[in-house]
Amino acid sequence: MNAIIGQPVSRVDGPAKVTGHATYAAEFSLPGLAYAAMVLATIPRGHVRSIDRRAAEAAPGVLAVMTHEDAPRLPYKQIAQRPQVDAQSGEQLHVLQDDQVRFNGEPVAVVVAETLEQAVHAAELVRVEYARSPAVTIFDAKQGRPPSESNAKAGRVPELGRGDAEGAMAGAPVRVEARYVHPREHHNAIEPHVTIAHWEGENLTLYDKTQWVDNDRKEIAHVFGLEEGNIRVVSPFVGGAFGSALRTWPHVTLAVMAAKRVGRPVRLELTRRQLYMAVGFRPHSEQHLRLGADKDGRLVALQHDVVQQVGRYEEYAETALSPTSHLYQCDNLHARYRLVEMDTNSPCPMRAPGVVTGVLGLEMAMDELAVELGMDPLELRLRNYAEQDQQKGLPWSSKELRACYETAAERFGWARRKPEPRSMREGGTLTGYGMATAIYHSDRSGGSASVALTGNGMAVVRSAASDMGPGTYTSMTQVAAETLGLPVDHVRFELGDTNLPYAPVHGGSITMASLGNAVVAACQAVQGKLASLVRAAQQGPFAGLAEDAVVAREGGLGRADGTGPAVPYAELLRQHNLGWVEAEGSAQPGEETKKYSSAAFGAIFVEVRVDELLGTVRVPRMVGAYDVGRVINPKTARSQCIGGMVGGLGMALEERAEWDARFGKVMNANLAEYLVPVNADVPSLEAIFVPNDDRDFNPLGVKGLAEVAICGVAPAIANAVWHATGRRIRELPITPERLLG
Amino acid sequence: MPEPSQNFSLTLRVNGAEHRVAVDARTTLLDALRDRLHLTGTKKGCALGQCGACTVLLDGRRVVSCLMLAVMAEGRQVTTIEGLARGDDLHPVQAAFVEHDAFQCGYCTPGQIMSAVGAISEGRTGSDDEIREQMSGNLCRCGAYTNIVAAVRDAAAREG
Amino acid sequence: MQPFTYVPVADAAGAAARALAGAQFIAGGTDMLQLLQENVVQPQELADLNGLGLAGITEEGDGALRLGALTRLQEAADHPLLRERCAVAAEALAASASPMVRHMATLGGNLLQRTRCLYFRDVSTPCNKRQPGSGCSALEGENRHNAILGGSEHCIAVQPSDLPVALVALDAEVLIQGAGGAERWVPVEGFHRLPGDTPEIETVMQDGDIILAIRIPAHATRCRSHYVKVRDRASFAWALCSAAVALRLDGEGRVAELRVAAGGVATKPWRLIRVEQELLGHRLDRDRVRLAAVWASEGAVTRSGNAYKAPLLQHTVERAILELGGLA
After folding, report:
1. Annotated catalytic residue: which of A269, A315, A654, A707?
2. Into how many domains does chain A fold?
3. Among A614, A668, A677, whose Cβ lies nearest the Cβ of C233?
4. For A618-648, what is each residue's pLDDT tens digit?
């Protein structure tokens, strides 16, 4: 059998991307396209007292100015079962539906003009008078309250635990306690959010930046009270998203309203500055940990409180307690999750939402405990290795974390680490080694795909999936090629269109575990359908054979007993005068979650160099080893892992929203002052996959990859900074002021 | 000397072809390429020169097209990502980017490639450290940096 | 971005005429386009100086270097005369912005680059520099990027360019042509103004003035010089702090000539006279340099977010002198 799964196939969409021919949402060329620009509120809370739109309306090229005074009243129907990507309680922003201002940056008007320049300028001419109300813009952890019932039901629970954490803590011979701060971060995908809305009669087409076309359609249908069948969402390429394009944001609604108003297709593209207000972000969080251990380093008690910011008009919450609940063996555990309401745009998932935060605190605290115990940090993890998910009381469907630790430590040269801080100095440069564990729960969801076998020997596989960068196009092509027995270049995978079979959200690392199995099912379905056709035919090599006598093999069909040659699909189609044959298949989660707990794991080892005089930290190398189940494509999988390392480096050393509480606003809302890593920050990264194949989780044996790759990186760096300097920096990012302060 | 004007009918020379295009004095080269000429391979990421996604060559030199008025590009040679490949044959830098998986989402990629082509022709790809520094004006939020270095190193060697 | 007219100009007189009629100048455009995109400036007209032909670096008869105002940053950074005789300038330029921006931006424009103060660039907030009398948001705001030296109660915005810091260390002058055609030399050290109570006035440039060239005197080219830039990431970031040093030792290894300037910490490129005085006439050693560098932050006024710049400035100056002196 030609193994295609597991091969480092180059991206099938690579040539389109490197030639500039991949078409992203802003780039669909529609006749008569008009351009929209938003006017955003400049106060954190209050209402619009008056809007003077005369200058804007009189400006050259302006087609329409719309405010709450003349925008259509939209039904904003509730979705019966809110998708997980939405805030689980409260009300999403009803854009231009009233005069209220809920946060600095809420849209108060939209302008449409013939050209982008005209629209932007006219938006600047709209004069808005505000009446300001008292606003809550300071994060005060003491104001934390539990998440709503709806969020708790969706897994964002207010508390969890087992045993008697308080009592066991009191009796623990070794204890550490610390508080960690993780600032508000922004996705900053290089592609801005953008929507083109195009009405043709009652039918609406959206070219949108989205990680989930099917849900985008559903959301807009509910906002406008439209039939889903009248809406098509197209999104073949997504220029990075990291969670920011999971849900449908207010600007999509604005684009749809604007296009209706002017009777032309309208493009609304957010500016970089607007992205800090008009879409979500990773919420600011503060966490407090207490760890109690016996003298051998075994955890006897673990207490973890996480407090996060949340908007006031809707409640977005995260599973920040999940890693603490099951990463280590500990009989007495209590974890608590609280939300602090603030007048801000709503936060949203950003790569490994909640989990990356929880792992940050837990893994920094574990390092502090190792110091307290005088124990190697890796040894401490091994002594507390969780052989099962203690919180759920279930075995892992698979767990090769021990192999991750061993492989990465060996490769990194962890044994060369001198335990004392500040002990690896060269001149004014302090070297530090640090490590951390990564975990991200593995989920799967239902999805479907279709496969068409065509007379020219091609297979066209379709699903309304998304590829924001991990390589869905390529990995699904491999799965289909292997299942069909065809070479990769005879398979084409199409995605990003609501006209295609339903796909689940492209987020939470679930795409392959969910949709990969649907692609397998669809391939098997089309093979079965072709077999039925040729068995039922009057003539041909398989005419009249029993159902189980014909099987798929070698890129075609053959006799189950192995006699005779396999006949390629295309030849069978020709023999039977068929242009093509097509079938759908789907896959749903099974009983696995009742029997097992599933997660992807990783171990991250990093070296830092700290310039003691200047307080700068650089990371010359990182090594990560990962148990992500089966790896469909080691080339693209590796790219996800090194990408996660770079994201974690940014989190550790560079990223922070500079929030001015007086204005309720992120002030460094660009890419020159909100810093993300550049090439020179990242010398050497190594990602290793430990062998695994988790068939107990799903038939393909994959677990998920995108989120686990960013977990653990920032704490490993912070731990290495401690080792280098003896300074425990508990607030990210670790910038010169923290090391010089 | 021309009179001051708000509107211009320009001839832009892009990838060896001349294009007549009507622009506002405010129109950036980036917006002219994307919205007037429909050469959307050049990407808009920040419009402030802070991400590098809109990198093109201007008379053979790397520039960010978002920080240039289109009217100021008249009479200059503009090379965009669409101008690199010869038919179906990828430019060596493009081929190296595919081979080394030097991208994920692909949005920063045209800018990265144009920057790499510029850096190689400027003779600034002599070491990995130099490549990293020279490619630091092009942000990749997917974090493909080490693969980008490998691709540029490989392409530079092939071209050299 | 409000509509404006665009006009290329062919000579300095033509440019001055446009300026006196209300035009603003554009050359490299790398800062102007950002200011336009963010609606920080609203020119009626942009007069394009690129036709003035002021590019190139030449050596004058007395050994001074003349840098044309329209020379691009990258061309200057690569120029052998600068690299060999004024390393601090070449290093400062090579550490500026990104390669793409360096291919576009001009030396003259770099002297005039506007501050990166977060409030100056966000038009929804008060800023005395952008809107005189509206108040300074940075004083009590997000000010980790702001100045600890040279500020006033009206403005603590940093002049963000690297090159002028190096030019102060090189004792350089700016050649300005006035609207009437008269040329005058202004020391780079005196080119930028302290904000005082008029932070909107940033330099000594008058309406219609054009920068023609920068001159680095011969005595400075005989110094060894060096630039150290500290930033939040390894490349493509503004200076949190920088130090430029030009040094000449006498035959006995004593400091015969020394100029030290700092960037990223002050409202203008900041000359550190006291540090220089502490070292002039002495042999360099680590302790003396460290003690001298402590004077770098003399007079610093820190705010909630930028107090770290005081020690950072001392350390950056110390590092730059030690590296230049071969003592690092």
Report:
1. A707
2. 3
3. A677
4. 999 999 999 999 999 999 999 999 999 999 9
Q: Which are the contacts of A423, defined by CB distance < 8 A and separation ≥ 6? A: none
State the angle between helix axes of A634-653 and A713-725 in degrees (0 to 180), rounded to the nearest 10. 50
Domains and CATH numbers, chain C: 5-51 (3.30.43.10), 224-324 (3.30.390.50)
- Which of B52, B83, B114 marks a domain boundary? B83
pLDDT at A1: 45
Fill in the DSSP letter of residue A85.
T
Nearest C-alpha in B relative to C238: B50
Q: Which residue in A225, A313, A254, A248 sits closest to A86, CA to CA?
A: A248
Instruction: Please report whether residue B73 resides in a domain.
Output: yes
Average pLDDT over residues B117-141: 98
Please report which confidence band the pLDDT of residue B1 belongs to, taking 50, 70 and 90 as the band edges.
low
Query: pLDDT for A594-606, tens place per residue?
Result: 999 999 999 999 9
pLDDT at C56 exceeding the cut of 70: yes
The residue in chain A having the minimum alpha-carbon distance to the alpha carbon of residue C242 is: A614
CA–CA separation, A655 vs A282, rounded Å?
Answer: 11
Contact C36/C72 with Cβ under 8 angstroms? no
Claim to verify: residue A181 and residue A104 sit in the same structural domain: no
- In this structure, the answer to whether residues B100 and B151 fall within a common structural domain is yes
Domain contains A475:
yes
Q: Residue A501, by phi and psi: left (phi above 0), alpha (psi -120 to 50) or beta?
A: beta
Beta strands in A299-405 (DSSP E): 299-310, 314-315, 333-341, 388-389, 394-395
Q: Inter-axis angle of helices B92-99 and B109-121, to 10 degrees? A: 130
Residue A67's beta-bridge partner residues? A109
Amino acid at A73: R
Do A573 and A686 sit in the same domain of this protein? no
Task: Determine the Cα–Cα distance for residues A472 and A507; give it in Å rounded to an integer.
Answer: 12
| Confidence class for position A2, pLDDT limits 50, 70, 90 | low
Residue recorded with tokens 């940075």: C138
DSSP states along A634-662? HHHHHHHHHHHHHHHHHHHHT----EETT
CB B54 within 8 A of CB C44: no
Q: Do A737 and C144 touch (CB under 8 A)?
A: yes
What is the SS3 assignment for A178?
Answer: strand
Distance CA C162, CA C185 (A): 21
Active site (annotated) includes residue A707: yes
Q: Do B143 and A677 touch (CB under 8 A)?
A: yes
pLDDT at B160: 63
Q: How many domains does chain B have?
A: 2
Which of B83, B110, B125 is the endpoint of a domain? B83
Say how far apart CA B122 and CA A402 lie, in whole Å.
48
Burial of C186 (0-12, 13-18, 19+ CB in 10 A): middle
Taking only the tens place, the pLDDT of each residue in B6-23 is 999 999 999 999 999 999
Chain C residues 272-311 within an 8 A CB cutoff of chain A = 305, 307-308, 311
**Helices C286-293 and C309-324 meet at what angle, rounded to 10?**
150
- My answer on whether B96 and B155 are in the same domain is yes
A252 and A339 assigned to the same domain: no
| Boundaries of domain holding A195 | 25-134+190-240+245-278
CATH number at residue B68: 3.10.20.30
